[in-house]
Amino acid sequence: MIETKELTITPFERTRTIRIYTPADYETSEKRYPVLYMHDGQNCFDDEDASYNMSWRVGEYLDASKRDLIVVALDSAPGEQRLDEYGPWENPYIGESLLGRDIVLGGQGSAYIEYIAQELKPQIDADYRTIPEATAMMGSSMGGLISVYAACVYPDIFKRVASLSSAFWFNQTELEQLIEASDLKGVERLYLDVGAKEVEEPIENGPTNEMYRESSERVYNLLKDKVEHIRFEVIEEGVHNELAWRERFPMVISYLFGEEL
Known about the structure:
Blueprint: E1 2-9, E2 14-21, E3 33-38, H1 58-65, E4 70-74, H2 81-86, E5 90-91, H3 94-99, E6 105-106, H4 109-127, E7 130-140, H5 142-153, E8 158-164, H6 172-181, E9 189-195, H7 209-223, E10 230-235, H8 242-257
Parallel strand pairs: 3-4, 3-7, 7-8, 8-9, 9-10
Antiparallel strand pairs: 1-2, 2-4, 5-6
Pfam family, one: Esterase
Protein name: Esterase
């Protein structure tokens, strides 16, 4: 079942849609479940709600696999506010190349993650039969950047994290410095990947396929010395859209929540 609610992200006083998936047996059992928090929630479940009418079809896969998992998917903010909320640090340069405007983007990601960790998660744990100590996070592109940031800042909360096709380049230097300074022993499993064909239509001064790959490799090389169970994949035919991430989702879930390593 997928339940849709409206909430207020209190640091920004912004109303946001949240979509909560519960397994088919949730109403008839007394089991408790791990929770996966996902970004870009409008793209997680239904094609008609998703950007470009392509979703991850998360509920479809979880229903078919009968996996015991609650998913809490937060819709992204509209337009450039998405970059603000998913960017932990300000980037004063990228606005010109991405949007053709001299504006500062990013800088609200720390407050966004603090909201999830300190306000939303406690509420979800109170309202649903969760396993509070079994909490994961997953995102793609900028959602991947903010997910790795969350693992660094709250490694004892977000213990299993997946970051697909990550836009680490948005805050590369700051993220690397944070990783180096972080104690990540609490992170139980960490998945990273990057597609070889992330950028299908390059823009002037924008990210390139080489930038995506080099950026992810640099982050992985720092993380692999700090997280015991980590997996990094280069997806040779991987492109930058929800259909590609949908195809990888079962494999990523199996790694995050499977018993074998």
